[in-house]
Design a protein that fits this description.
alpha/beta; about 25% helix; single chain; 6-stranded mixed beta sheet; about 400 residues; globular; 6-stranded parallel beta sheet
């Protein structure tokens, strides 16, 4: 049996073919919105012409002096190069000049972007016309207030110097905040590391079931981000929902909280995945967020037989895994402020990592890399699986474990 999963989003954006023995019981487990069609340009334009609970950008931009366009970083698949031109046309219609506009990467405590990453994210034309600034979470942030959970919020100085703030991002299930997008573009996106540290600590002691992939209604991190986007004074948000090829399939523009609430309502359906029969082998692909492949483990651990099995992580990401100054490891026994030592999976489980660019730190966010089985291509993976399961196996394949979440039981 042959299946394919998408890979190399920011590169060739092609398919990886997975070939299983015909006798094996293989189940393909995509999210419900996997095959949703990509929006046509006219449909994108309609979203800007009919914003939610506010006038069009061209109307609210008139008379503004300085404009900040905040956008999610390269760890998110949002095609800012496709979306931003619609924003810029609206600004031009309001007589905003290029000299009044700047872009700021909402990278939180992720590594800074070089020119190559920025070209992929915003496109060469924007880089030539506008300054595009990295966010520095350690310096040049100004305090704007305190959230209802007590986080002292300090935000990027360049963002706060502007009297019109527009945020661009995508809404996906998030392993802590329930769903991303929305106010996460501010907190942690363009906030100071102290604020980001406090923000992440809001999950400690949270009631069971309030945090995690798809848990949003009572999530304390949700309320922190909603406070943050109000305190920072964001005027407009543009949030995308994407299909299985990371193409924009839905787009909402407008007032930040109403837009995000509606996007989450839709995203719950789009990214929901039915729980398959418990499997001997779970193949989980990291496509939309390949540099945060750790996220793809979550759905695998919920889908594998509790008595043990094999998890195959496909983490084809030439730039490697994310640099995370809050959670990452920066020495043999230490890391960022919220780093915790990584340990191997329990003995009943085997972890096979398909990574053509193996390096010994690429598992630092989720396990001890020396305990994993490494493979450089699918043939190597199948060699290991056939050794572990010579008599066949039940297999579940998730085409993008970084954005899929298991739908709640009816």
């Amino acid at each position: 049996m042959k299946l394919s999963v998408p890979q190399l989003l920011w590169y060739d954006n092609n398919d990886l073919e997975l070939d299983f023995p015909d006798a094996w019981d293989v189940q393909f487990c995509p999210p419900k919105g996997y095959d949703s069609p990509k929006l046509a340009p006219q449909q994108m334009q309609e979203a800007f012409d009919n914003p939610l609970e506010m006038p069009p950008i061209r109307e609210i931009a008139r008379g503004k002096k300085e404009v900040a366009i905040i956008f999610d970083d390269i760890t998110r698949p949002t095609p800012v190069y496709e979306i931003a031109p619609y924003v810029l046309r609206q600004l031009a219609e309001a007589d905003i000049s290029d000299e009044q506009v700047r872009f700021v990467v909402a990278s939180a405590t992720h590594g800074a972007h070089d020119n190559l990453a920025l070209r992929k994210k915003v496109g060469q034309e924007i880089l030539e016309r506008f300054p595009v600034y990295n966010h520095n979470p350690y310096e040049s942030c100004v305090t704007v207030g305190t959230t209802s959970h007590g986080t002292t919020l300090a935000v990027n100085r360049e963002v706060m110097s502007c009297d019109l703030k527009i945020a661009i991002g995508a809404v996906f299930p998030h392993p802590q905040a329930g769903f991303g997008g929305g106010g996460k573009l501010i907190l942690p996106g363009v906030s100071h590391v102290d604020s980001i540290d406090q923000f992440h600590r809001t999950i400690f002691g949270s009631p069971p079931g309030t945090v995690g992939m798809g848990n949003w209604e009572e999530n304390p991190m949700r309320f922190e981000t909603e406070d943050a986007i109000k305190l920072a004074g964001v005027d407009v948000i543009v949030n995308a929902i994407m299909n299985g090829r990371c193409e924009v399939s839905q787009l909402l523009v407008g007032s930040p909280l109403p837009v995000h609430h509606e996007c989450v309502r839709r995203a719950k359906e789009v990214y929901a995945t039915e729980l398959p029969a418990k499997a001997d082998i779970v193949v989980t692909n990291a496509y939309a967020k390949p540099s945060e492949a750790v996220i793809s483990l979550l759905i695998a651990l919920k889908s594998i037989k509790p008595e043990g099995g094999a998890i195959v992580m496909i983490m084809n990401c030439p730039e490697g895994q994310i640099i995370h100054y809050l959670l990452g490891r920066f020495g043999k026994e230490y890391g960022g402020r919220q780093y915790t030592p990584r340990v191997p999976l329990p003995p009943p489980f085997k972890l096979i990592i398909l990574n053509p660019q193996k390096d010994m730190t690429c598992t630092d966010l989720f396990t001890d890399g020396r305990s994993a089985i490494w493979a450089r291509d699918w043939d190597e993976v199948m060699g290991h699986l056939k050794t572990l399961y010579p008599d066949g196996a039940r297999v579940a394949v998730f085409p993008d474990g970084t954005v899929q979440y298991l739908a709640p039981s009816p």
